[in-house]
Amino acid sequence: MKKYTHDLIILGGGAAGLSAASGCAQLGMKVALIEPHKTGGDCLYHGCVPSKTLIRSAAAAQAFRDWERFGIEFPESGLGSVGSRGSMGLARTEGINDRIRKVIQTIEPNDSPERFRGLGVEVFEEAAVFEDAYSLRTTTGVRVSAKKILLATGSRPRVPPIPGLAEVGYITNLDVFSLEKLPPSLITLGGGPIGIELSQSLARLGVKVTIIEAALSILPREDADLSKVVHARLEEEGITIQTGRLAVKVESPSGDKNQTKKRVILDDGNSFEADEILVAIGRIGNTENLEIEKAGVRVERGFFPVDDQLRTNKKHILAIGDCNGQYLFTPVAGAEGSLAVRKFALGLPGKISYSAVPWVTYCEPELASVGLNEQAAKTAGLSFQTLVVEMGGNDRALAEGETAGRAKFLIDPKQRVIGVQLLGPHAGEMLLPGVFAVKERWKIGRFLGPLYPYPTVSEVYKRVAGQLLGPKLFNPRVRKILRLLKGFRGSL
User: Fold this and answer.
1) What pLDDT, on the 0 to 100 scale, is given for residue 481?
2) Which of 156, 226, 410, 447 is the most exposed place for a label (fewest CB within 10 A)?
3) DSSP SS3 for 274
4) Listed range (32-36, 128-132, 474-478) with the worst mean pLDDT
5) What pLDDT sits at residue 84?
6) Which helix (H) or strand (E) holds 18?
7) Is 40 left (phi over 0), alpha (psi -120 to 50) or beta?
8) Is it true that domain 358-473 has CATH number 1.20.120.450?
């Protein structure tokens, strides 16, 4: 029988790898965790945590800018009105960056090597390469081997091969949260969730932003009626948006003596200039520098392809989290890590299901989704009905001055919920009932059962169910029957 140094080797200490390491170690496995950078991964240092911290700071700046919209007057202040398009100048980054650092530092201990060593995990804070399908060698020459291996190497920003981009320079989400100063102007390449969140935040902090998106709309995976509302809000806040346009070249304008400006030329011949370029066109898996070919693991389009059991083409090697290219969300990484624990530590069968994956774009208005939207349902050829409730009819949304959004529910012919999209205040926080509905295949009528606190945005769940089921109860035919049976004297 072959001797191994460990029961399990995990490459990557982000959300996926740490979830699996914790569970497997606590169930008695000898686990080697290899992470050449900081444990905690992109989510902690360059993604979820710092971006939401930045978004909150930017929202505070926007709230100050919008004070008159909420009926606030300071006649003795002398500050005057700046309005939603007004300028308060370019925000300084010292305080914002310090706040981001403090939030990260508060969370860091949960993901620290010390915590996982306390759980019994052997943590290698260095890189490693494969020697064969069952063993690796670290940078310092330590050889580790195991019968089971878990790839959890994460992802990084995808950088397009646009001529001149590398030479002129750019930033990504890896750089945004530690800028010494904000650029006066910015061109964002990409109108997906990352590009939209960062663009709106930086614009609210005083940066003049232009977004260039190759698709015909921003947030192209969302339904058009929802992305149009976000589009309109961004333009109201002074952001220029170019959709259906490709960046074909980047250069430094010849007339710029200091060479500080950067010019992006589009496929229609138009061009835009800015002080900085933010690349936000998607992600690519961290599959290089592992000598993965020695393990015989296949790589496709920059990711490790897996089956519904998260197995690579080598059945003893699983790939979880961003590096498998399925759904690049932190909760998905955690769920995939949990399935790895089930399979490796408990020896139980199991498959991953992505039917009820929630995701949120943390712009304003906030956009949250789970299950199928109309675009996906039509592509799948499904029969469905769409129910819509406008946020303008919700009392809490009215009170908060956020009435531009809507709630959309997709139901199948049996009235089971197959998708929920919420666009409006607190959308991400109020998505959980929709997650349960999609996952458990609830009928829409279940939303009529609970008592809802008033006023809350969550009342849209009750309203949408009532929209479908109310007419079946409150109609002339039912009134006529009740008049005959009960002797009611009301109108027909």
Assistant:
1) 84
2) 156
3) strand
4) 474-478
5) 45
6) helix 15-26
7) left
8) no
- Using DSSP bridges, classify how beta strands 247-251 and 262-266 pair: parallel, antiparallel or unpaired: antiparallel
Q: Where in the chain is the domain with CATH 3.50.50.60?
A: 6-39+112-157+284-344, 165-282
Q: How confident is the model at residue 258 (pLDDT cuts 50, 70, 90)?
A: low
Residues 190 and 300: their CA atoms lie apart, in Å, by: 23
Cα dihedral value 245, 249, 255, 260, nearest 10: 90
Which string of DSSP letters, residue by residue, matches 52-94?
A: HHHHHHHHHHHHHHTGGGGT---TTT------TT----PPPSH
Exposed e or buried b per residue across 215-228, where buried means at least 16 C-beta atoms within 10 angstroms of its C-beta: eebbbeebbeebbe
Q: How confident is the model at residue 411 (pLDDT cuts 50, 70, 90)?
A: very high
Q: At what angle do helices 193-204 and 48-65 cross, to 10 degrees?
A: 40
Q: Name the CATH superfamily for 6-39+112-157+284-344.
A: FAD/NAD(P)-binding domain (3.50.50.60)
Question: In 10 A of CB 167, how many CB atoms?
Answer: 9
pLDDT tens profile 367-388: 999 999 999 999 999 999 999 9
Helix axes of 48-65 and 94-107: crossing angle, nearest 10 degrees: 140
The residue that leads in pLDDT, 170 or 74, is 170
Taking alpha carbons only, the member of 273, 436, 245, 263 closest to residue 355 is 436
Which carries the bigger pLDDT value, residue 166 or residue 257? 166
The size of the chain, in residues, is 492
Q: Give the CATH fold of the 165-282 domain.
A: FAD/NAD(P)-binding domain (3.50.50)
- Given a contact cutoff of 8 angstroms between Cβ atoms, the answer to whether 396 and 457 are in contact is yes
Pairing of strands 155-157, 271-274: unpaired
